[in-house]
Every structure is written in C-alpha cells, then in structure tokens.
C-alpha cells in the first residue's frame, strides 16, 4: 500500500477540529502505520487575521487512490464546518491537504502531487522533515531533512506546541 502524507491545519477552535480530523483519518488508515508529527503554531501566511494556525503532518498506508483519499479529506473538512469550494486567504476550521501519495507525480483529480506547499511553507516542511526525515521528495530528489536544513525558517516563524490526542502527547514545546 502507498504511504499517504497529509498536512492538517486549523485556526478556529484548533484543538477540537484537529482532534476530530485525526480521529476521522485514523479510521481510514492502516493503524500499524499511522504516524503523527508534532503540532506547530504559526501566524497566517498571505493574509491578515489575529488567529494563529495549528499545523501538523500525518502519514499512513492506505488502499485509497489519491482522488478517493482527497474526496474523503474534503468531506472531513466539511463535517468540521469548512464550506465547500475555494477558501484560501481566510481563517478556517480545518484544512487537510494531500501532500504525497507514495512516489506519485502528476495530476490526480483536483490535486497535483507532490504538493508544491511542501517546499514553500515552514509549517508543512518542518513537521514533514521530523516525521519522514530520510524520505526523498519525489521530484526534488533531496530528503525532507535536507530540504528543511536549507529552508529559511526565520522568514516564516512557527513554534512547537503541546497537543494531546486521546491522552497521548503527540507534541511538546522545544
């Protein structure tokens, strides 16, 4: 089964929506392969809003094809109050983005893999580099740890926060 890697974010009732998303994704995952990164807090990028985001990355083996997994993710977002359609540049209850699906490259429904956000945003690359440091980016050829080491993290402030999911602390402050 391919490894699916997803980026999750929330800026409205962050803990509640991320816990709900993790619960829903855990139901889709091979439980033996589910991995969850630390949670990072960061200000919004590209728009002004007083609410900071919580972001994390999850990875798991799945039998679902990219378009089917993406459709499930969009349904989870809507279950958490995110309106259908484009909602960029605004605060949101939940954002789930398919970042990687195995070594897939190309267009799958509405998603292009690997997702360009991986190398663009600290709140995506940092947790990904911690979760899968030795895995190589399918098109850039560098490991995620190497990509993170080259990233200008000072340009995009973010910090780890304590976060608990079902009594298990999945992240802790640096």
Task: Describe the protein.
By secondary structure, the protein is α+β, with helices and mostly antiparallel strands. 29% of the residues lie in helices and 26% in strands. It contains 5 helices and 10 strands; from the N terminus they run βαβββαβββαααβββ. The chain has helices at residues 14-28, 66-79, 117-120, 122-131, 144-150, and strands at 3-10, 35-36, 39-42, 53-61, 95-101, 106-108, 111-113, 159-161, 163-165, 168-171. The strands form 3 sheets. Strands 1, 2, 3, 4, 5 and 8 form a 6-stranded antiparallel sheet that branches. The chain has a two-stranded antiparallel ribbon with strand order 6-7. Strand 9 and strand 10 form a beta hairpin. Helix 4 (122-131) crosses helix 5. The chain starts with a strand and ends with a strand.
Compact summary:
The chain has 174 residues and is α+β, with helices and mostly antiparallel strands. It has helices at 14-28, 66-79, 117-120, 122-131, 144-150, and strands at residues 3-10, 35-36, 39-42, 53-61, 95-101, 106-108, 111-113, 159-161, 163-165, 168-171.
The poorly predicted ranges are: none
Note the overall shape: globular
The tally of helices reads 5
Percent of sequence in beta strands: 25-35%
How large, in whole angstroms, is the Cα Rg? 15 Å
What is the ordering of alpha helices and beta strands?
A: EHEEEHEEEHHHEEE
| Average of pLDDT | 92
Could you state the oligomeric state of the chains shown? single chain
- Helical residue percent band: 25-40%
Q: How many β-strand stretches?
A: 10
Q: SS-based structural class?
A: alpha+beta
Major beta sheet summary? 6 strands, antiparallel
Q: Gap between N and C termini, in Å?
A: 34 Å
């Amino acid at each position: 089964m391919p490894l699916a890697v997803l980026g999750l974010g929330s800026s409205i009732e962050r803990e509640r929506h991320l816990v709900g998303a993790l619960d829903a994704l855990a139901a889709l995952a091979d439980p033996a392969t589910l991995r969850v990164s630390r949670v990072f807090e960061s200000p919004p990028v590209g728009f002004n809003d007083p609410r900071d985001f919580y972001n994390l990355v999850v990875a798991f083996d799945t039998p679902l094809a990219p378009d089917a997994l993406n459709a499930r993710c969009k349904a989870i977002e809507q279950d958490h109050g995110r309106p259908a359609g484009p909602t960029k540049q605004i605060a949101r209850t939940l954002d789930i983005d398919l970042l990687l699906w195995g070594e897939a490259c190309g267009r799958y429904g509405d998603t292009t893999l690997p997702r360009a956000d991986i190398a663009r945003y600290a709140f995506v690359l940092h947790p990904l580099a911690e979760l899968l440091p030795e895995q190589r980016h399918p098109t850039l050829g560098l490991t995620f740890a190497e990509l993170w080491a080259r990233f200008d993290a000072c340009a995009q402030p973010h910090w780890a926060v304590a976060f608990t999911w079902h009594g298990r602390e999945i992240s802790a402050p640096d």
